[in-house]
Fold:
Amino acid sequence: MEITRIRVGACDEWRFAEGGRSLLVEVPGGTGGGAEQHPASTPSALLLGWVTDDIRHDLAEPDLTDPLVLAAVDHLRDRGVADVSWLPHDDPVVPLRVREDLPYSVVLDYPMAGYLLVQNSPADRVPSHGTEFFAGARAIDLVPVDARGRSAPFGPLSVVRSEDPARFPGFGRPVHASIDGVVVAARDDLPDHRAHRGLPSVAYALTQGRRAAQGWQAMAGNHLLIQQRPGVVVAVCHLQQGSLRFAVGDRVRPGQVVAACGNSGNTTEPHVHLQAMDGRDPMTANSLPITFPGGLPSNRTVVDGRPAGRPAC
Structure:
């Protein structure tokens, strides 16, 4: 994709060109003097129309599945543009709400082989985790279990004491890439804490607000962000300390082992948290709908996470 910016009076006029067509976008006040510079006030952008053969055409309602539209929105948000709108013919400006209007789901592979218990599924409610924060409104949790759908044995001491995460079947289980893309963020230096069930889980829940106040990384723990394309980024969270096999800039393919399941971040037992979003920063991005081959499973469903026809390498 070719991106150009022209200063026109008090505005920046951006052109995003690919495949013989261009999308014209106006940013009143501009987006700063360089790619990393942001203006003092947060700008907004207005989609003006398509350009073909140097002829501008009125913009019909934007197709929010169009890669060029998504790429333009993602590019502008990376430069501090908060709101993107479009101007229908003879109508007022209409906000472009990617999160609410996106008509498709990001199709993911299951991130681990073996049996997985589904928790906090967006098939049951949105927001799936009870909050819109951190672009997690449509996230899902997958807990490795045995063939009977059980996690670690629950005994009398589990009621009153926290437990070693290594007792749980998911701890250290290989995590596969769920989507084809490029790693755009990675972290694996955070410790795996003890697991909490029974009374310890109640005490742990009471401190969740403290972790949330520390930001997304305190909640996600060790993680990877994989960008499939501009406007589609998948977060893989709660990974085991020191287990990442890929770094920022690496390309990953579905089925490749990228890390191991851990118990880092805001988690009571080893599992993987997956979410898709429309930008790289969970603090400002919007959540995207997700699904899996065969559909989006509901809470308490046990699924077989074997990658279909893809080698685990």
